[in-house]
Amino acid sequence: MADRSGGYTEYQFTAEFYDHVIPYRQRQDVAFFVEMAQATGGPVLEVGCGTGRVLIPTARAGLEIVGLDLSPSMLAICRANLAAEPVEVQGRVQLVEADMRDFDRGRAFGLITIPFRPFQHLTTVEDQVACLNTLHRHLRPGGRLVLDLFNPSIPYLADPARLDEFGDEPEIIMPDGRRVNRRARIVARDYFDQVQDTELIYYVTHPDGRQERLVHAFPMRYLFRFEAEHLLARCGFEVEALYADYDKSPYGAKYPGELIFVARRPA
Questions:
Q1: Beta strands in 49-132 (DSSP E)
Q2: Any residues with CB less than 8 A from the CB of 22 and at least 6 apart, and which?
Q3: End-to-end distance of the chain based on CA atoms, in angstroms?
Q4: Domain residue spans in the chain?
Q5: Which of 133, 201, 202, 257 has a C-alpha 20 to 30 A away from that of 233?
Q6: Which residue has the higher pLDDT, 162 or 87?
Q7: The domain 5-152+222-264 is classified under which CATH number: 3.10.150.10, 3.40.50.1010, 3.40.50.720, 3.40.50.150?
Q8: What integer pLDDT is reported at residue 5 of this predicted model?
Q9: Residue 259 burial (CB < 10 Å; 0-12/13-18/19+)?
């Protein structure tokens, strides 16, 4: 059984599997982000657009959107997905390979979104501030930023069982017949810097019976509510709303729930 590792900025094999992972396919956030885009009228900048899970439905809804991602592999899948869309949907999308901490599109947007945690791959305050300052420059006055984080669960962070492989996701059947079982584990915990070293482990069985164990390793930094609020304020944003879920439940309505910030660049 082969064992390969991949860095968090270059997804490679995980990009291929991404759209087939059941929890990703069933996430209830797409309608929320499309509604936010429609409310602002665009144009939209999606940071960490990945394979287009949120980006493509936004373009289908009639919004101009720029998708930015650092991973060539994720963008390649996104382009393939986009190629299956009608030409008018394709015409609303521009894809850009760039680092969220430092880029210049030469234009301002009405809405910037960071769906499904890419901001949490930034493991230092310096990188977080660099990213938020860059996004602030790309928002027009009165424009909004949606920052999507997980709300840290204290019991989860301290659970020793997570140091071993865990997970009960349904098996993935790929179009070419490969069968994939995905598990996860926390390799290390740094409670002082609020970073968890995480592995997503893919057990792949090929149609000929050959087996692989593929490991996607990456650090993930968690932020608590007031820490995130202070970061946003430090970078010139005003928090308008904080939701616990994509149904706009108020923060505190469920635990742990999400940390979904809607922040505004003052006019």
A1: 65-69, 93-97, 109-114
A2: 169, 170, 172
A3: 57
A4: 5-152+222-264, 154-221
A5: 257
A6: 87
A7: 3.40.50.150
A8: 36
A9: buried
What span, in angstroms and rounded, lies between the C-alpha atoms of 219 and 222? 10
- The half-sphere exposure of 1 on its side-chain side, counting CA atoms within 13 A, is 10
| Nearest of 103, 101, 111 to residue 145 by alpha carbon | 111
Beta carbons of 99 and 78 less than 8 angstroms apart: no
How far apart are the C-alpha atoms of 185 and 190, rounded to whole Å? 15
Q: Which residues pair with 96 in a beta bridge?
A: 68
Residue 196's nearest CA partner among 205, 187, 204 is: 187
Q: Which residue has the tokens 């071993």?
A: 164
Question: In this predicted model, what pLDDT tens digit does every residue of 219-234 receive, in sequence order?
Answer: 999 999 999 999 999 9
Helix or strand holding residue 98 (H, E): none
| DSSP states along 196-249 | EEEEEEEEEE-TTS-EEEEEEEEEEE---HHHHHHHHHHTT-EEEEEESSTT-P
188 bridge partner residues: 197
Using one digit for the tens of pLDDT, what is the confidence trace for 96-132?
A: 999 999 999 999 999 999 999 999 999 999 999 999 9
